[in-house]
Design brief:
- The chain is of the alpha+beta class.
- It has three domains: 57 residues, no CATH class; 52 residues, no CATH class; 57 residues.
- It contains seven helices and six strands, in the order E-E-H-E-E-H-E-E-H-H-H-H-H.
- The chain has a four-stranded antiparallel β-sheet. It has a two-stranded antiparallel sheet with strand order 5-6.
- The longest helix is centred in the last third of the chain and has 17 residues.
Length: 182
């Protein structure tokens, strides 16, 4: 999800990027989802689709609203799992988790960071940091590379496209967290 606008009455307008493994009627698939009211295709290309979707708001939104918390955008939804970054006090994080667990069993806290000015290690999730370290150790970031993306994907037991996207997100987060000079 790239951006979201609350339309009120438990409805939202969201701009999403859909990374799809193969061609298909993904717009039609989305339209068939119960919560979706309308889908507008914005762009389509080899890296996926960009869509504008009007949908019923998830049960999470009122919880975030009640606690006055925001999720950082963009956030990723993969295989039905959402990965959010939320900045809050420890007390609010516990309240958030308690309320989320009441609504949906299986909610997991992936990581907690205690910093207002995140360093590279703090801006990555635990899984992203582990992937980054394994890619570094394998020589993926060396010049010239000591391992290809395809070989690294085999080692990680991931699709090449998934690994490429995961490493691009890691690189983006690290670059965004790099202090700007000037």
């Amino acid at each position: 999800m790239l951006s979201r606008l609350d339309l009120g009455t438990r409805r939202s307008l969201s701009e999403v990027r859909l990374c799809v493994p193969q061609p298909g009627d993904w717009v039609g698939e989305l339209r068939a989802v119960d919560q979706v009211e309308k889908v507008e295709l914005l762009t389509s290309g080899p890296s996926g689709l960009r869509l504008r979707v009007i949908h019923r708001t998830s049960p999470f939104v009122p919880i975030f609203r009640a606690l006055l918390l925001m999720r950082r955008l963009p956030f990723t939804i993969r295989d039905g799992e959402a990965s959010w970054t939320v900045i809050a006090s420890e007390d609010k994080v516990h309240k958030l988790l308690d309320r989320l667990r009441e609504k949906v069993p299986g909610v997991v806290l992936e990581s907690v960071r205690h910093s207002d000015d995140p360093t590279g290690a703090e801006i990555l999730t635990r899984r992203q940091a582990e992937l980054f370290q394994r890619a570094r150790a394998a020589g993926y970031f060396e010049v010239p590379r000591k391992i290809t993306l395809t070989r690294l994907a085999d080692r990680e037991r991931m699709a090449v496209s998934s690994l490429s996207e995961a490493l691009a997100i890691v690189e983006k987060k690290l670059l965004e967290g790099w202090p700007s000079g000037g």
